[in-house]
Amino acid sequence: GNRVMTSPDGISWTQRASAADNSWRDVCWSPELSLFVAVASSGTANRVMTSPDGIVWTLRASAADNSWQAVCWTGVLGLFVAVSSDGTGNRVMTSPDGIVWTLQNSPADNLWSSVCWSPERMLFVAVAGTGTGNRVMTSPDGIVWTLRASAADNGWRSVCWSPDLLMFVAVADSGAGNRVMTSPDGINWTQRTSAADNTWRAVCWSPELSLFVAVA
Q: pTM here?
């Protein structure tokens, strides 16, 4: 009952009541809707919850009981997109409001683990932990997805976009000295030397610091 915490400064944290004891995997914010949306990998027809303030959360019906791993928002399209690590041809769901969700066809049943949006490229990019040479997929609208060649068949866990560098960066939990890949367009990916062969789980970009940060 306490699977949410909030903080005004990142230092002091307060427990909040979660709408259900699901395995919540990811959360994002829509400034246009003034709404947080979280997605889960467990639960029965309730693997989404929303909140206008991060404190009071409401369960929503997920489009399917898939293992939802990540969610992102684009104000340009007015759309949330979530990706899943399981399901048969339906590992994407979308919503214009965080409440009503629609399944979309995924081009491969890979273990999709992360998704982000680039307003400059008008493109969603998702990365996966499984697949053979196809651990990336892209979409201009969240509905039609196209497989792309990943730089290596590593266990890609997180992807983010830098509008300043016009670059996607993804990090992986497997690979030998190559647990980072970059792309200027989401289509063509290049291996990069990772600082260590750690189990990298997440990466984000700070425009104020001009810095990518990844954690393992």
A: 0.97
